[in-house]
Amino acid sequence: MQTLEHRLQINSNEPDCGYGWVCVAACFTINAFTWGVVSSYGIYLAHYLSNETFTKARPIDFAFIGGLNFAVAMLAAPAVTALVRRYEIHLPMSLGILIFGIAYVSASFSWRIWQLYLSQGVLVGLGVGFLYIPSIAILSQWFSTKRSLANGISAAGSGVGGLIFSLSTGATIEHLGLAWSLRLVGVMAVTANTLATIFIRSRNRVVQPASIPFDIVLLRRYEVFLLLTWAFISMFGYIALLFSLSDYAISIGLSRDQAIQITAYLNLGTAVGRPVIGSISDRYGRIEIAGLLTLLCGLCCFVLWLPFQSFAVTVVFAIISGAILGVFWVTIGPLCVEVAGLEELPSLLSLAWLTTVLPTAFSETIALQLRRPGMKREYLYPQIFSGLSYILASFCLWELRRHRKSLSRTDAARNQSPR
């Protein structure tokens, strides 16, 4: 007869139970102190664009640095996936903590633009990649019926972190200066991410995932092509909107404090909206909800962001878009499971990260090139660019939904046919 302790140990290792919720808390913390920190780059961007902190630097330089946070993180995916396959999750995550801390401390000593490229661009991206990529597959291993909810709660960490760091970054820059603002971020991130890494656990020994860094076989599947195309196109809209909103607020005559508040409201929307997205995805369909919200975000750009230039409407847009603009980050894990299965999850996630490298690297650069300083509506073309990206991306998920339903009908007809 099994002892109570033994039965509890078994139950705690089953999906939707026990230690999985500890892993949710750990992943929430990692999101808060990686992507939450990165999402506050809009505050740094507005500061860099308004002050000649780095001589001979152009606006496009600062836009590209922010894009590198995402692009380098995604570019590191094959190497991180290979390390996880060989050494499990804790070694690469520990390396990520070290790199992330070094990145922000070294950025505080930067006085030339190439140094900022290396520190606040490349090293921050590497740190995020080594921390985040091992963690993203874990919750799908621990949860089944509540998979999207768990991922939504975890992804909300970036909103909570973004809210905290958006407000604190502006204040620390004003009262302590840019250098100490960067150092404080580095110290806090290292501390929080270390605690999260200690508590996080994978179920790789149970699931035994393939963990192939670049799986050519997966790329041949139409469903995978549609999912990756959605990721590629939607990321252009996401980065342009996320990083541009703070400087856009200044361009329409709002104060710097109001611009910081708008970034904070966007992150508040992220913190509240992502668990809701996860919950309704589990109930009404993960592909359907992801496609609907991608379309809705694009429409909001045209209905709320583009026509109006007041603080109140911009706040409303920031809250609504904050809840849904990062639908990719909430749903990509569960969607990969839907398309390829749990065993292929790390391999398909690695492909998804690589797919987003180019849009994350160049989206804000494109947005700033589309900007027209001196015009009455300086951000008109970046707004159109962002909205169209989301709308076009949504078509990929609607086609994915149609294709899967078609396959289901075909399989049902085959099973009902006489043998």
UniProtKB/TrEMBL annotation:
It is a multi-pass membrane protein. Pfam families: MFS_1 (PF07690). GO terms for molecular function: transmembrane transporter activity. It is found in: Membrane. The chain crosses the membrane at residues 21-44, 64-84, 91-111, 117-137, 149-168, 180-201, 222-246, 289-308, 314-336, 348-368. Keywords: Membrane, Transmembrane, Transmembrane helix. The keyword Membrane applies. Coiled coil: none annotated. GO terms for cellular component: membrane. Its main location: membrane. Belongs to the major facilitator superfamily. Monocarboxylate porter (TC 2.A.1.13) family. This is Major facilitator superfamily (MFS) profile domain-containing protein. It comes from Endocarpon pusillum.
